[in-house]
Amino acid sequence: MALREEYRVALEACPTPLMLVSKDGEILLSNSRLDDLFGYEEGELLNQSVETLVPQEIRRDHPDLREAFFEVPTSRSMGTGRDLFGARKDGELIPVEIGLDPIESDGVPLVMVSVLDIRERKAGEAKIRHALDAASSAIVMIDDHGKIELVNVQTGKMFGYEPDELIGRPIECLVPERYRRKHSVYRVSYQNARANRSMGVGRDLFGVRKDGTEFPVEIGLTPLDGVGGRQIMATVIDITERKLTEEAIQHKNAELERLNHELSEFAYSASHDLKAPLASMAGILALSHDDLSAGDHEEARANLGRARELAERLAGRIEDMLTLAKTDSLDETWEDVAVCDAVVEVWQLLDIDHASGIAFSTAFNHTDPVRTVAPRLLIILENLLSNAINYRDPKKADPTVCVETSDEGGVFRLAVRDNGIGIAKEYHQRIFQAFKRVSDNNAPGNGLGLALVKKNVLHLGGEIAVESDADGTVFTLTLPRRFEVDRQDAAD
Hints:
The chain has 15 helices and 19 strands.
């Protein structure tokens, strides 16, 4: 085909690598810049098939693509947003972008092909990509409509996706379902007032992984305006460990406040409960001294006996105080405990003679085992069951004690129910204080049992409640099923 000379001049004058290709793929013209790009001598490409410049793996399919273009010939760019390569004479593949412009010469359809060498751009993009992938935070770029255009490797790791899975998806796929509608409104509002902004500081934000699990995040937003349009770069930081550390610190602070309060109460109790016996002992010993001086040995012996009784009572009270204090230092090993077996074993280890005549029953409706700190649970069970035995109603011919359990909404619930003498409502809070007894019966005890129950329940992250009237008393223990896991993770 004879081509007008102006085509040759125009191609050679253009700074862009160009070639003119016929409908059947024959290269009719190429300028020196295209020859240099693909490693050919001047004129060497003339009359060759354009497929010569196409990578081997797609060379067979390229004629179909070329034929489709000539069926609907329109100017178009190729390679933007995807990877295209050209094949040099020496076999090297180079990244390119291609522009196609249909023209006619003497009624014959042709295509002007412009080829841009984008090796430098790709090298720059690779450096940027490497920097993004080296970041420890997730980086997500979205367009003006909230579609994800770019993510780094950490985004995939953080949210559980392969990076390519996220491209083109709405950013709301990384937002928990309950927040998605609001998030789209927030996103549009941000587009109308674009500025660098941190999100999540002072309030709780969450991301959602591919598997549906949620985790706390902080997000930084940076607006970008360039040739690609209005975009937003979001930097996402997983703050799960920070939140667990904060919760652990809060737990420790609460624990310290509780211990400080208990220390104050302990000091008050020690000064109040020990001062009077010590004063009495001092007085009795003074009398004994006078009796000995007067030669009244019998009276001195009696007074020394009373002093010894006071000393023993005082030692018992000190031991009780130490028992209460030592509950804070119990082993905190969480383990699976078969509560059904533990309840039966604790009942059997109690004073059977004292408990004779009491109808003991159970109604276990929970899932065993329960993960807890075994020594603390045993202390709770022992004291609640002992309490039920000690305060049975002698006027009732059929004393009963029943242990009931259930699982409700992730909470383990255990109730000890009796038909004993009951506890007046005004004493329901007081009974959990150390050394506070509100009953005037002669049941054994030192007023320490329910205080121990309360302390150990708090250590397990649970609650203890009491309901009581003339028909009996119910102590209800509730423990969160996963409290121990969260606490252990925070400690780690």
